[in-house]
Design brief:
- 76% of the residues lie in helices and 0% in strands.
- By secondary structure, the chain is mainly α.
- Helix 2 runs antiparallel to helix 6.
- It is globular and about 50 Å long.
- The C terminus is likely disordered.
């Protein structure tokens, strides 16, 4: 089992449920607020882990960066839960379809971008070998910045239905 898989397993089976329990029971966060905070923290971990791997000169540093990065891997789960709670239940299927399309488009763009960064890093050599991780860190930073800008409704749980918009 790889280090990343081991950390992901621990994250999903132990760490994330424990943090969720604390946020809900101790701090009384509602589901939307909890998911937003977890997504923001995951984005920060992904960014910091990518930077750590990019700047590391030793295998131990890369491994430490990989652990931090893997701890942020729940962002897909928490962000989906967040956006699903923002739409009417009968629209969740449409939402997840849109997410799949946007995710596919993102992979079509990011794949060649990262491949080019790998090629460039190999050509330049030295510290530039970490260039793909710098690119990834920049992309994760953009995602994290977008998550920081999210403002939830006052109630934190209320879904605005189409009927409420009819005047």
């Amino acid at each position: 089992m790889s280090l990343r898989a081991l950390v992901n397993l621990g994250l999903l089976l132990i760490i994330l449920p424990a943090i969720t329990h604390v946020l809900v029971n101790r701090y009384s966060l509602r589901a939307m607020n909890k998911d937003l905070r977890l997504s923001q923290c995951s984005g920060i971990l992904l960014t910091v882990g990518s930077v750590a791997m990019a700047l590391s000169e030793k295998p131990a540093g890369v491994a430490a960066g990989l652990v931090v990065f893997a701890l942020g891997s729940a962002i897909h789960l928490t962000a989906r839960s967040l956006v699903a709670s923002m739409v009417e239940p009968n629209q969740v299927g449409t939402l997840f379809t849109a997410i799949a399309v946007v995710s596919g488009a993102g992979q079509l763009i990011a794949g060649p971008m990262l491949a080019n960064a790998i090629r460039r890093g190999m050509i330049l050599g030295g510290a530039w070998i970490g260039l793909p991780f710098v690119v990834a860190a920049g992309l994760y930073l953009l995602v994290t910045a977008a998550l920081v800008c999210v403002r939830l409704p006052e109630g934190g749980e209320e879904i605005i239905t189409n009927e409420e918009h009819v005047e």
